[in-house]
Amino acid sequence: MFLVQLKVNPASKSFNKNWSQFKIGFSEPDSSASPNTAGSECCCGKSWNAFWIGNELLFKLTNSYKCGLHVFLNVSQEIPELQYSYYDQFIVGSEAAKYRMEAINFARGNCSTSKGLMRVGMSFSTFDQDNDPDGWVNCAARYEAGWWYAAYLSWFGNCGFTNFNTFSPHFLSLYGSETNRLFASQMWLECI
User: Fold this and answer.
1) Which of left, alpha, beta for 54 (phi over 0: left; psi -120 to 50: alpha)?
2) Residue ranges of the Fibrinogen C-terminal domain (predicted)?
């Protein structure tokens, strides 16, 4: 499996990056973690606040293999409450297509962000490449995060409900219009 996205601090603005940075990917180490607290068995003894695999690698993997997407969400700061979704198909387009979300299909999980992640046909946006469908606002600049912004009205204007990367992350549940605040998120790609 490949780590696609990791965010452990909900107030972090680590995902306010330009197009080129999202293209190649980035990581932000946790400066407060030491090798003793991070666990030396993983990540060379390092701990991370933020990580993005890179849209170009995401495009290459999802177009060369059959890939699914695992989404892990922590929705409680006090008590670790993990919610999970699995999408058995996930495909991202090329840079020429603005890394458009070509396919995503919810398969199972105890929580579904399927309404919030239904971004098929939506292009990836950053503050310097406004590809979202709202002609009045640059969603990536407004919410200080690159993402696939949706074309429907929500509390966030026409930027959609679900965004794991913003400084105030939320997601829309499968069961109606319930919006949940996120405290941490991870997205993993599984390709065969």
Assistant:
1) left
2) 1-165
Instruction: Tell me the CATH number at 22.
Output: 3.90.215.10
Instruction: Tell me the CB-side half-sphere exposure of residue 91, using CA atoms within 13 A.
Output: 12
- Output phi, psi for 80, to 5 deg: -60, 110
Full residue range of the structural domain in which residue 67 is found: 2-191
**Rounded CA separation 70/64 (Å):** 18
pTM of the model: 0.84
**Nearest CA among 55, 67, 62 for reference residue 24:** 55
> Which of 47-51, 59-63, 140-144 is the least confident region?
47-51
Measured distance CA(186)–CA(111) in Å, rounded = 14
Question: How many domains are there within the chain?
Answer: 1
Close Cβ partners of 65 (under 8 Å, ≥ 6 residues apart):
191, 192
- What single string gives the DSSP state of each residue in 15-58? T---HHHHHH-EEEE-TT--HHHH-TTSGGG--EEEEE--HHHH
